[in-house]
Specification:
By secondary structure, this protein is of the alpha+beta class. It has two helices and six strands. It has a single domain, classed as Roll (Thiol Ester Dehydrase, Chain A). A hairpin with a 2-residue loop joins strand 1 and strand 2.
Length: 143
């Protein structure tokens, strides 16, 4: 992928996410921890309400974090354009996500005029033991 320049840092993306979702409980909403060229890292704090029977984290929670990480990545690179929307999310669950804080790393595969394609990797235990992988496409607002 060609070198991408982020237009927002982690604090800027977090502020935009709070603007986009003003009713979200801050403690329950994921936090962007790092922004770099073509990448972001996002973390969601664990709580017992995230568990499903069997003691692993719910699949919809993993999907939500992947989508949030991709949205954060897009915003970091296009700025305050909150009408970017998910147009596709393909999720692969690789293993049960053990209880613990959820971490996601999103990487921009393509940033075009009409859409952005993001690769997202998610884990709880370690980055070497991925719990899920997703490819997320965002439709970008047309100016």
């Amino acid at each position: 992928m060609a070198f991408l320049t982020s237009v927002l840092d982690a604090a800027g993306v977090n502020a935009l996410l709070r603007k986009a979702f003003p009713d979200a409980t801050p403690a329950a909403f994921p936090t962007v921890t790092e922004v770099s060229s073509g990448r972001v890292k996002v973390m969601a704090t664990y709580h017992e309400g995230l568990l499903r029977p069997g003691g692993v984290i719910l699949g919809p929670t993993l999907m939500s974090l992947c989508d949030t990480a991709a949205y954060a990545l897009v915003l970091a690179h296009i700025g305050d354009q909150l009408m970017a929307v998910t147009s596709s999310l393909t999720m692969n669950f690789l293993r049960g996500a053990a209880p613990g804080d959820l971490h996601a790393q999103a990487e921009m595969l393509r940033l075009g005029r009409r859409n952005a394609v993001c690769d997202v990797r998610l884990w709880t235990e370690s980055q070497e033991r991925l719990a899920a992988h997703a490819v997320v496409t965002y439709a970008l607002p047309q100016s």
